[in-house]
Amino acid sequence: MEKQNGIGIQVSDVSGQKTHNVSNLPTDATVGELIQGLLSQMSLPKNDVGGRPLTYQARLEREGRHLHSSELIGDALQNGDNVVLQPNIDAGQ
Amino acid sequence: MSNEYQYVLELFREDNTPVGRAEIIVDWEPAEEWAKFAALRSGLLSDGETARVLSIDPVWHREVGEPLLDGFRVNLAINGSRGAATDFTTDYFHRLALQASTAFIEKGRLAKGENIHYVAAAFPQKEIEQPEASGLQFTVEEVAPVLNIIESSLGLFMENSDLMGEARKEDAPVFIPRQVFEEASAITRQAGAKETGGILIGHLRRDREAGEIFLEVTAQIPARDAEADLTSLKFTPEVWTEVRAAIELRRRGEIMLGWWHSHPVREWCRECPVERQQKCAMASEFFSAHDRHLHRTIFPGAHSIALVANDTATDEVTFSAFGWRRGAVEPRGVYIVR
After folding, report:
1. Which of A12, B89, B134, B209 could form a disulfide with B71 if both were Cys (CB 3.0 to 4.6 A apart)?
2. What confidence score (pLDDT) does residue A3 get?
C-alpha cells in the first residue's frame, strides 16, 4: 500500500456547493498558505468587486473554531478533518 | 479542463465604426455550472454523480467562420464516461463588453453614453511558458455535491402557489412560502436605514412524472451577525457559522438555496417624490455589482436564487427575484406558496 505523505482533509465552501478532498498537505505549512492555495483550486474569487483581496477564514468543524492563518497545518489539523472556507463579503451598492 | 483559445471582443459604435479590440479573461464557471445543472434537469446526470468539464470549445460563426463566434460549447464527462454538452451564445460576454467599453471611455476612444455592440472571436492560445510551480503543493480532488433531491409532485406545488414575476421555461421553478416574504418584510422594516438580509434554505425536488427539477424554499435564516449600513451588508464568517448551525439544528436535510437582502430605497431616494420612487429602477430590478459578486462567490450553483426586499416609501415592502440563467444572474419569477 502506498504510504500517504502529509495530511488529508475535506474542504467545503460555505454553501456546501463545492467540496474537495485535499491530500498530501505538508505539516509545516501554515493555514494561511493552505487557504490561498485552495482558492484557485476551488474556483473561489480572491478579490472583491473593487479588486481588493477577499478575506477567508477556515473553520475547523471538529473543534468548532476558526483557525488562525499563522497556525501550522501539522498542529491544527488531523487526517479526516472537515474545514469550511468562510469569507467576509459585501452585498450592496 | 481543456480550453485552447484566447477570446477577444471587437467593439463597434452604433454606426458600425470600430472602437477597438479587448482581450478578455472569461469566468467560465457560471457556464460550467449551468451545463451541469442542465444535465441534472434533463436526467443525464443523477444526484451524487460527478460531472467533469472536459473542454470549452468555440462555436464558429455559421456564415463567416473562424475566428468569429456564434458562441461556445461546454462539454461534460459524466462519471468518466457518457457525455453531455451545452451551447451558449455570445450574450455570455455582455458584461465583459460593458467593462471593455468603460475602459475605452477612460482612454477617450468612446464617448460616455454611446451605445456599442460587439462581436466575439477566438484565437488559438499562444504557447505560454508555464512558470515553475510555486507555493504550497498538495493534491485536490473534487467531490460531487450531494443535493438530496426529493421525488415530489410539481403539480401539487403549482396548485397551491401564485406566480410573482415572469416564468421562463429555462428557469427551474422556485416555490417560496408566503411566510418567508412576511418575515423578510418585517426584518427589513425593523432595520430601517440599514440593509439587512439572510440565507434561504430548503430542498431541491424532482417531479416524479415529468422529471423536472424545482426548488422549495422552506425558511430564511436571518443574518444576525452581518455588519450593515445604509448601502452595504457584510456577511461575516460568524454569519455563515450561525446559518450552518441553524441548518444542522433543524435536521431536515435542508441545503442553502440562496440569499436575500434589503434595499432601503426610501432612505436612498429620500429626496425623490414617492411616485418616482415607485417607478425607479432602484426600487425593483436593481442587483448591484457587489450583489452579483456575492452571488457568484457564495452561490455559484446554477439553481441558486436571490431575493431583494425593496423598502420604498409605500405601505408594503416589495420583492424582486434573481437567479442564474445561462451563466448570467438575471431577474426571474418565483412562486409564492399560499
Report:
1. B89
2. 45
Q: What's the rounded Cα separation, in Å, for the pair A34 and A12?
A: 13
Q: Determine contact: B148 vs chain A, CB below 8 A.
A: no
**d(C-alpha A68, C-alpha B121), whole Å:** 45
Looking at the complex, report in whole angstroms how far the Cα of residue B144 sits from the nearest Cα belonging to chain A: 7
- The answer to whether the CB atoms of B136 and A26 lie below 8 A apart is yes
Whether B245 and B333 map to the same domain: the answer is yes
Cell readout for B256 is 442553502
A26/B138 CB distance under 8 A: yes
Report CB contact under 8 Å: B304, A29.
no
Cell numbers for B54: 472536459
Residue B319: pLDDT over 50: yes
Which CATH number characterizes residue B273's domain? 3.40.140.10
Among B26, B138, B293, most A C-beta atoms within 10 A, so best to mutate, is B138
A21-86 carries CATH number 3.10.20: yes
Residues 6+ apart with CB under 8 A from B275: none
Cell numbers linked to B112: 460616455
Instruction: Say if residue B175 is in the same domain as residue B73.
Output: no
pLDDT at A2: 43
Give, as one character, the DSSP assignment of residue A47. Answer: B
Which residue, among A5, A14, A23, A55, would best test binding to B if mutated, counting the most B CBs under 10 Å from its CB? A14
Amino acid at B35: A
Picking from A79-88, B26-35, B136-145, B217-226, which range would have the lowest pLDDT averaged per residue?
B136-145
Asked, for residue B276, whether it belongs to a domain, the answer is yes
Higher pLDDT, B167 or A6: B167
| Angle (nearest 5°) at CA B266 between B217 and B231 | 70
Q: What is the span of the domain harbouring residue B329?
A: 150-337
By the CB < 8 Å criterion, does B29 face chain A? yes
Decide if B301 touches A, using CB distance below 8 A.
yes
Asked if B138 lies within 8 A of A14 by C-beta distance, the reply is: no
Overall residue count recorded for chain B in this entry: 338
According to DSSP, the β-strands at B328-331 and B334-337 are unpaired
- Nearest chain A Cα distance for residue B301, angstroms: 7
Residue B11 has phi, psi (to 5 degrees) of -95, 145
* Residue of chain A whose Cα is closest to the Cα of B258: A15
Q: Give the E-state strand segments of B61-153 in sequence order.
A: 69-78, 83-89, 116-124, 139-143, 150-152
